[in-house]
UniProtKB/TrEMBL annotation:
Pfam families: Methyltransf_25. It comes from Solidesulfovibrio fructosivorans JJ]. This is Methyltransferase type 11. Keywords: Methyltransferase, Transferase. One of its GO terms (molecular function) is methyltransferase activity. It comes from the Bacteria. SUPFAM superfamilies: S-adenosyl-L-methionine-dependent methyltransferases.
Length: 342
């Protein structure tokens, strides 16, 4: 490049913009790399011990003939991102984020990276595109249902606290969870109150099977029932003291919200409470914005709720309703609590 062209490149702001874009691309590539490395088990393998290339291939059950070059290139990407350290012909974890995402207890972070790279990025790419059909986006979301259930556990500390406020620590209590996801809140409810009986409803059969297995492992099979299927096919009459829908109201079309609230109202005992936790469309974070865009673009989904309007809808359906912000860390997360008059 000629000196005059170089000075022009700097002077018109293109060089600065290029550096800023490069810096942001590195962050994007980092998320994609960590998501894939975690999903394939590479992070976990390297966390256990530094590995030579052939040892990494063996740990991942990959064919050396087919995958040696690709894995070496993939690891090189991790090196350039600062997440992998090539020590004496062995690869080890280097970055703090890679080390964190390799830990089983941080699976929600790994799942969020998978969700961002595998679901959010394609949604952004598909925005305002006439070539992309809505049903293909819905199918993409369905394929990520297990990942979404895992990533939603990031809100677990906040929503466990919400559940503690709703459920008594002792005494008979009938609890229903609509959309159980990973089952973490159902199991928390069972552990909180030894006299509580729980019913979970989960549309995705695989998730329901996983929850049943967790209930069995926890020795709670006699107190819990896990149903796989559509909650619209069920019918109860004043059976539950508490019903929750955590991070799933947007899976119900907005036109069905009045019918949903009325149905759940009939299922509650007098004095029982319904709690709906969700991100709202007035959020200030990028995750709120991408979820709002998801809700707009996905067939069958509803827009993220607007707090005032949704509280008013609950009141119209007969509930004594209020809106709660459970955590200052995420002001976009709201819990809509409605009590059936005693």
């Amino acid at each position: 490049m000629k000196a005059s062209d170089y000075l022009k490149w700097i002077g018109n702001g293109q060089a600065g913009a290029f550096l800023r874009l490069s810096s942001n691309l590195k962050g994007f590539y980092r998320i994609c790399f960590l998501a894939k490395a975690g999903k394939m088990g590479l992070l976990q393998a390297l966390a256990a011990s530094p590995l030579r290339l052939e040892e990494a291939l063996d740990a991942l059950a990959l064919s050396p003939e087919k995958h040696a070059a690709s894995l070496k290139a993939f690891l090189h990407l991790g090196v350039t991102l600062g997440e992998i350290d090539p020590r004496r012909n062995r690869y080890a974890l280097k970055g703090n984020l890679a080390k964190a995402m390799a830990k089983p207890e941080f699976d929600a972070l790994l799942s969020l990276a998978e969700e961002a790279s595998g679901l959010h990025a394609p949604y952004i790419a598909a925005a305002l595109s006439e070539e992309v059909e809505g049903e293909s986006l819905r199918a993409l979301s369905d394929r990520h249902s297990e990942v979404i259930a895992r990533s939603s556990k990031i809100a677990e500390p906040v929503l466990k606290s919400v559940l503690d406020d709703l459920l008594p620590e002792s005494g008979p209590c009938a609890f229903l969870e609509v959309g159980s996801g990973s089952g973490v809140y159902l199991l928390h409810a069972l552990s909180r109150n030894p006299e509580l009986s729980a019913t979970g409803v989960e549309l995705v059969e695989e998730l329901a099977r996983n929850i049943r297995r967790k209930i069995m492992d926890a020795g709670q099979a006699g107190r819990a029932e896990m149903l796989a299927g559509d909650m619209w096919t069920l019918d109860y009459q004043e059976q539950f003291d508490c019903i929750t829908l955590f991070n799933n109201i947007y899976y119900f079309p907005e036109s069905d919200h009045p019918k949903l609230l009325e149905k759940l109202y009939r299922w509650l005992k007098p004095g029982g409470r319904l709690a709906i936790a969700t991100l709202c469309r007035d959020g200030k974070h990028s995750i709120d914005a991408i979820m709002h865009m998801w809700s707009v673009m996905t067939p069958g989904a509803s827009l993220l709720p607007e707090p005032g309007a949704f509280t008013a809808l609950m009141s119209k359906s007969g509930y004594l309703a209020k809106t709660v912000t459970p955590s200052r860390l995420d002001s976009a997360m709201k819990v809509f609590v409605g009590q059936k008059p005693a």
